[in-house]
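Title: Prediction job returns without error message
Component: structure pipeline
Severity: low
Priority: P3
Assignee: unassigned

Description:
Job completed but the reporter wants confirmation the result is attached to the right record. Sequence as submitted:
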Amino acid sequence: MNSLRTRVNTRVSTLDARRRHRALARAILRLLPEPESWLDVGTGDAHFPETAKELFPYTSFDGLDPTPRVVRARAAERIEEAHAGHLTDPHITSALQARYDVVTLLRDRSPAPDPAAELRAALTVLRPGGLLLLEGNPDHLRTQLEPHDCEFVTEARRVPDRFPPPRRLIARRKQQP
């Protein structure tokens, strides 16, 4: 009986995660229908890119994670390129500079030791005009992003859940004049 309950709970949580992932991808779809490249920071097993590919079949999804799970995700073809490490690593940041149209930076998957440094690194790998999908306190994030020529485009709709998630936001890095 206990094993059946565990399997049912696992199945429900998997479906719930896919539903949240689909809602996040749809929020980007409304703003940028066909991004060329997307970096999912803290991707783990790359379940978010796997779900987002349903809406963005021509987008190249890459993953970044400090664990070996990112390499297994590449082997499973959920992402095209696997980057092992932290976004704040200067070697990673310089190799990926201005490469992505969209960067997903969700704290619930990979809490950063220095969130401000991670946000700056995310802006480094984001192309001008690119979108940053992140979560946190909108007022605090606005204060951090405005000096870097970013503006909030929209707030991703909250998906009903048993436990309300942090506020998910989308910011656009302004085009250079």
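Comment from assignee: result matches the submitted record. The CA atoms of residues 62 and 172 lie 19 Å apart.
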